[in-house]
Amino acid sequence: MKRILAGLIVLALLVGGGLYAARGPLALKVMERRVVEGMTADLVGSLPDGLHVVVCGSGGPFPDGDRGAPCTAVIAGKRLFIVDTGEAAGRTLGRLGIGGDSVVLLTHFHSDHIDGLGNVALMRWVGGNRDTPLLLYGAPGVERVAAGFNEAYIFDSGYRTAHHGPEVAPPSGAGIIPRPIMLPTGADSVVVLEEDGVKITAFRVDHGPVEPALGYRFDYKGRSVVISGDTSASPVVAAQAKGVDLLVHEALSPELVKLLQDGSSRAGLPKRAKIMADIPNYHTSPLDAAKIARSSGARALLLTHIVPPLPVRALEGPFLGKAREAYDGPLWIARDGDLLSMPAGGTDIKRRRLR
Ligand SMILES: [Zn+2]
Ligand SMILES: [Zn+2]
User: Fold this and answer.
1) How far apart are CA 53 and CA 98, in angstroms?
2) What is the average per-residue pLDDT within 216-239?
3) Number of domains comprising the chain
4) Is 296 inside a domain boundary?
5) Which ligand is closest to the CA of 112, given by its number?
6) Residue 108 C-alpha to ligand 2 middle, in angstroms?
7) For the chain, which end, N or C, has fewer CB atoms within 10 Å of the first or last residue's CB respectively?
8) Distances in Å between the alpha carbon of 191 and those of 7, 79, 246, 267, 296?
9) C-alpha dist (Å) from residue 20 to 9, 32, 329
10) Which ligand is nearest to the CA of 59?
11) Active site residues
12) What are the DSSP calls for 194-244, one per residue?
């Protein structure tokens, strides 16, 4: 019996050792296949006609291993729009196979919403071989943000063209062109763009002292999505979201942030505690977002800009609090890589996870 057992152990070690040695070559084979798949992936081209939302950053400004900083991609037909470009936005979009030409719309200029902008512009330019700069929509002030990024990337742009040649990195495609959005006096909203059947409306939200801060509504072939941007509970969002298919609303849990505030105080960090005490007043709780979804008749609610980070799924219940009781429709907490599809001519909303 002992001899059989010893034999089995030796056999297991040999097989295990063989597999271990084969790991590298196997991984190379997989990589060989994945490289081509990754380089030819084209999510925008592969989706059916309709309005689609991809979450390319569902976190907020806190360090979060699971969620990138704010980024929401909207695909309308074959057009790609990216709302906010938080840190890691470019890498996440690339990983999800979302490329091609794009237009960026900023909700406001808080650092976590723009700190991935340079890379998004670069990936579009060199990765997508574009010969025109990125168009960047935003509130007045967007000219300075664009100028700052253009200045910061001035050396990098030169290196890319010098290294790869103007055929691959045409100098005319480098950088960003700002498109300021002017809200008419006394108006809460303005149509920003109407092309290829896509209508984008910008609207004023309440994120003071950030002024103006914007949200966006997209309409395409009878389907619609509203993206709140950063805001406290706002009647303007509720008005824009009237009957919308999907409301993508920011969410901050005051209860969980209070835990961080108390923890900061106990740790002897009063200034950090003050930041934690300050932030709930210009964001929206999951419960209030659910009430807005209900009052506006939104068909589905996706909570994003998740603050604070939820390192374990078990925290999702405490994060939501009583939100599910306030809203009957589908309510999801966004995760990076979520795809929500609203086919043209339909009424359904399909949700699935990309990679
Ligand atoms: Zn934010
Ligand atoms: Zn903000």
Assistant:
1) 12
2) 97
3) 1
4) yes
5) 1
6) 7
7) N
8) 76, 17, 19, 48, 20
9) 16, 19, 49
10) 1
11) 112
12) EETTEEEEEEEEEETTEEEEEEEEEEETTEEEEE--S-SS-HHHHHHTTT-
CATH at residue 209: 3.60.15.10
- pTM of whole model > 0.90? yes
Residue with tokens 């081509």: 36
Spacing, Cα 31 to ligand 1 middle (Å): 36
- Whole-number Å distance between alpha carbons of 248 and 330: 12
Residue 34 lies in a domain: no
Whole-number Å distance, alpha carbon 261 to ligand 2 midpoint, is 19
How far away, in angstroms, is 27 Cα from ligand 1 center?
39
Q: How far is the CA of 134 from the centre of ligand 1 (A)?
A: 22
* 147-178 pLDDT per residue, tens: 999 999 999 999 999 999 999 999 999 999 99
Q: What is the DSSP letter of 314?
A: G
Tell me the residue range of the domain where 51 lies: 43-353
Q: Which ligand is nearest to the CA of 209?
A: 2
Burial class, 160, CB count within 10 angstroms (exposed 0-12 / middle 13-18 / buried 19+):
buried
Q: Which residues pair with 313 in a beta bridge?
A: none
